[in-house]
Amino acid sequence: MNPLDGNAMAGDLRELFTVDVTAARYTCAGCGHADAVATLILWGQEMGQVGRCPHCTDVVVRVVQAPDRVFLDLRGSVRLELPLAGS
Amino acid sequence: MARAALPGRLTWRAATLTEERWESATARTLVLDVPDWPGHLPGQHIDVRLTAPDGYRAQRSYSIASAWESKTVELTVQRVDDGEVSPYLTDTLQIGEQLELRGPVGGWFVWRETQQTPVLLVAGGSGVVPLMAMIRARGAAKNKTPFRLIYSVRTPGDACYADELARRVRDDPGLDVKFVYTRKTPDGWPAPPKRIDVATINSYGWPAEFTPDCYVCGPTTFVEAAADILVALGHDPKRIRTERFGGTS
To answer: Which DSSP state fits A21?
Structure first.
């Protein structure tokens, strides 16, 4: 199976957040690499996705969709830097 | 440019197929009527969701091919023969029928008219779709930003938008298009088939000193090869935006 990238997470994340998180900049907890969430290497299907750092391949973000809730695991990201509207 | 997405969370909505066009033997453009569409930026995509009678669902992302200046939402879908979703969209969905979508989404792989630097677009197969939206938006706005597209296809018959690209090269000042054929070239083409390589991007892209914004879209292996070449040629990785898709080119 070919991986996708973080661009493909935009819809799922946009159901949770009112801003586009794929344009946010993550900092990887494993290696310190920082880039747009859109650049993460994305594995998985609609019920569960894993975004890995393209630099060190550590897991940066997990999104798991259950029928009645979503689990978002960001422990692989030291921080997210989000551009504010109009910037 | 008051066309940013409305605040609030995104939801699924129904769209109706109103027109269709075949761009190649295996790629179909779907023109969709989406009530209350908020508009979109070139490069953004939508998610399509299909639900089977037994409740099984499949969801895929598709780039928007049209510029919002044309007030249409168009997708160009490449049929993946063993795919779950694309054969339905290319071969089964009829005019007047509906599908579920949400969007527009994605704020990173987009081109904004306010960007000041030249643009290099590198497309592998149906990766041309979001790049075509950028070309169309530029043309509709009569924007003068220099654009170059390097478009890799297997054979001449696999090229989407070939006629429109030829017309735009003539009518949209500052747009250049270079085709690369990987399996079969047109008759009389001066070189044998080949993949995009350093020489291609060096000859038909922009020099790194111009600090162009580079957009690369295609299958994963294509995207990685093209992005590596750009970095090797001295382009700033921060100016290289990539989008990869799962199907083969």
So the answer is: G
User: Is A86 a member of any domain?
Assistant: no
Residue B42 belongs to a domain with what CATH number? 2.40.30.10
Sheet holding A25-28, edge to edge: A34-36, A25-28, A77-81
Show pLDDT as tens, one digit a residue, over chain B (249 residues): 444 445 567 889 999 999 999 999 999 999 999 999 999 999 999 999 999 899 888 889 999 999 998 888 999 999 998 888 999 999 999 999 999 999 999 999 999 999 989 999 999 999 999 999 999 999 999 999 999 999 999 999 999 999 999 999 999 999 999 999 999 999 999 999 999 999 999 999 999 999 999 999 999 999 999 999 999 999 999 999 999 987 543
Whether this prediction's pTM lies above 0.95 is answered by no
Please tell me the total count of domains within chain B. Answer: 2
Kindly list the residues from chain A whose CB atom is less than 8 angstroms away from the CB atom of residue B127. none
Asked if A18 lies within 8 A of B58 by C-beta distance, the reply is no
Contact B46 A4 (CB under 8 A): no
B57 CB neighbours in chain A (<8 A) are 46
Contacts of B246 in chain A (CB under 8 A): 1-4
Domain that holds residue B41: 13-105
Residues 6+ apart with CB under 8 A from B242: A5, A39, B109, B215, B216, B217, B223, B227
Q: How far apart are CA B136 and CA B59, in angstroms?
A: 27
| ipTM value for the complex | 0.91
